[in-house]
Amino acid sequence: xxxxxxxxxxxxxxxxxxxxxxxxxxxxxxxxxxxxxxxxxxxxxxxxxxxxxxxxxxxxxxxxxxxxxxxxxxxxxxxxxxxxxxxxxxxxxxxxxxxxxxxxxxxxxxxxxxxxxxxxxxxxxxxxxxxxxxxxxxxxxxxxxxxxxxxxxxxxxxxxxxxxxxxxxxxxxxxxxxxxxxxxxxxxxxxxxxxxxxxxxxxxxxxxxxxxxxxxxxxxxxxxxxxxxxxxxxxxxxxxxxxxxxxxxxxxxxxxxxxxxxxxxxxxxxxxxxxxxxxxxxxxxxxxxxxxxxxxxxxxxxxxxxxxxxxxxxxxxxxxxxxxxxxxxxxxxxxxxxxxxxxxxxxxxxxxxxxxxxxxxxxxxxxxxxxxxxxxxxxxxxxxxxxxxxx
Length: 391
Ligand code: NAI
Fold this sequence. Notes:
Blueprint: E1 6-10, H1 14-25, E2 29-33, H2 37-56, H3 66-70, E3 73-76, H4 79-82, E4 88-91, H5 97-110, E5 116-119, H6 126-130, E6 139-144, E7 154-158, H7 164-176, E8 188-189, H8 198-202, H9 205-219, H10 223-229, H11 238-245, H12 247-260, H13 269-276, H14 309-325, H15 332-343, H16 349-370, H17 379-383
Parallel strand pairs: 1-2, 1-4, 2-3, 4-5, 5-6, 7-8
Antiparallel strand pairs: 6-7
Helix pairs in contact: 1-2, 12-13, 14-16
The structure holds 1,4-dihydronicotinamide adenine dinucleotide.
Residues 10-16, 33-35, 39, 92-95, 99, 103, 120-122, 144, 146 line the site of 1,4-dihydronicotinamide adenine dinucleotide (NAI).
């Protein structure tokens, strides 16, 4: 297996600079690349700031200073020369296929033959990105969660032609990158399918949420009553959570899965109208609630009786079973652990083992009620066949 010393991080934005920081903290030489000096310098300044904070808390380790780690960081806008002595490349540029392909082509033409090329894409096909290279066996997905330094999960995704060795190198590197919230969890994603593990399993809950939001609007139910339905069961109710994540993000994710999985993911009327009116949630700062004075205070004294947390768990169990059916992973233990490491919430299989019969019926009823067939339980869920697929 390749010994990694030099890592090149392409894209110095939100994800790239933070991933570069943990690579430095793990002891690697890192070259940070972006399209202008302004962007590279801004990324490097954030890394410096992050390292200095950790140094002040005494968290960098014996004899290690922010300055010494910054000494291992190079900055450049010249990608071709940056990868000349790279052992491992992590691409975190904008989520555009043509940009990623161009970046991968340049890397392939200039990096040494042993160098592995990893992409942090959250929605694109690893196989397609790798198709422009002459080293498709050395192209993998390396999907960090935001922010990489705090989220324990890194998914390592196999494209159709990725070799076992490249996958193992990705896992080994991922496990070495420090996380401030505990032990890294770095599962292999065996098939290049939309959403990989965690985003995919959580995605169809949106089909249900869109229906809940549209029903509430039709019946004149106030949003705080929908969130009251989840009080005590979720840290944030569905409306507050949607505001927090961003209504536009929810809208784009819905469109993405409409194209890749099923038309049932099409964003609902409420979400679509909010995007049109630029009510994007926390950042705008209007959404379901007003965020102009910080986190909204939501009156949860009256429940709507419309949103049911158990339905969300049933939907996640169903999607987790589909991941098993499709061979994205071989066992449910990985799915549950990934959800905890990437979302800080338990996965559905623990409770699902006891409830799959009841939850299958619940999903049949929900599909009838919403007209969304994607919500119907798959064979593996209905039969409980997943129960024996732990590993
Ligand atoms: P961002 O917009 O903060 O950063 C992207 C950076 O890439 C910018 O600094 C931009 O100047 C740079 N860039 C664009 N074209 C380039 C090129 N040809 N060469 C070098 N640099 C270039 O975006 P963010 O959020 O950091 O996302 C980056 C990638 O990470 C995307 O693929 C995204 O899907 C993925 N991702 C994002 C997550 C998030 O929560 N934001 C979570 C997981 C993955």
